[in-house]
Specification:
The chain is an alpha/beta fold. The chain is built from nine helices and nine strands. It has a six-stranded mixed sheet, with helices on both faces. A three-stranded antiparallel sheet has the order 2-1-4. One of its GO terms (molecular function) is ATP hydrolysis activity.
């Protein structure tokens, strides 16, 4: 079972008493408070909560795009800044963010160019990751020639190109319609199974969080706190119709209860 796999995994991300306060012209904004969490190697952890609860802020803190003002946060035993320098993770944003003047292959190889990989190594890695996200044969296309779902897959390929062990994803499918989103959820699970990466995934969707995750982290309204951490008991193989099973529905119900409980912190 997934629960057993994650409990055996080595820690990759650790947060101890993490808080983050933004100073603004209107006074301090407390985005995170007393966040404690350990993410094991190979976990697929989803963060869910209402808008403004700090789930994206926490993901950005892991990526050293924001800096906690309290507590301790480590990635592979290092500070997030050092982990970024060590290229410990790939980051996928809500918008695909592809450069329209570059081909899909050109977009995917951009981080490899910056890192100084040889031309031969760039080509080899681009072909490998395009295959992983089912975009073989699309390398010479431009972003405008691809559907929204295909563009987001290209964005995932770019994040995978330098083969970091951690993949951080900030609502990557939030702007897509339900049919495309379902398909990409299935493809992401297959990708995760093939690569064994540790994934942190921000979402507003309860079914998406339950379907994808080994663990679901439920967060309260601002200041963001963790109200529940739910270990999934679903099998590793997950067809879409697993969402109709009593076990899936029970986990989704617990997520909803955690979201409701979080409002007591207001």
């Amino acid at each position: 079972m997934m629960k057993d796999l994650s409990s055996m995994a080595a820690p990759v991300i650790e947060a101890q008493g993490v808080g983050l306060t933004f100073e603004t012209n209107d006074g301090p904004v407390h985005a995170l408070k007393d966040v404690n969490l350990t993410i094991g190697r190979g976990d697929f952890v989803s963060f869910i909560g209402p808008s403004g609860c700090g789930k994206t802020t926490f993901l950005r803190a892991i990526a050293a795009l924001e800096h906690p003002t309290e507590g301790r946060l480590t990635v592979n035993g290092m500070t997030p800044d050092k982990a970024r320098q060590a290229r410990a993770y790939g980051y996928v944003f809500q918008a695909a963010g592809l450069y329209p003047w570059r081909t899909i292959a050109g977009n995917v190889k951009l981080p490899l160019e910056i890192m100084g990989f040889s031309r031969a190594e760039q080509e080899e890695r681009v072909q490998k990751v395009l295959s992983l996200v089912d975009l073989e044969g699309f390398g010479k296309k431009f972003p405008w020639q691809l559907s929204g779902g295909m563009q987001q897959r290209a964005s995932i390929a770019r994040a995978l190109a330098f083969d970091a062990d951690i993949l951080l994803m900030d609502e990557p499918f939030g702007a897509l319609d339900e049919i495309v989103r379902d398909r990409l959820n299935e493809e992401l699970l297959k990708l995760w199974a093939r690569t064994g990466k540790t994934i942190g995934f921000v979402t507003h969707s309860i079914p998406e969080a339950v379907y994808l995750s080994t663990r679901i982290v439920v967060m309260s309204p601002r200041p963001g706190r963790i109200t529940d951490v739910i270990e999934s008991t679903l099998p590793r193989e997950r067809p879409l119709d697993i969402r109709d099973t009593p076990e899936f529905i029970a986990i989704a119900h617990r997520v909803r209860e955690g979201l409701r409980a979080g409002h007591s912190y207001d």
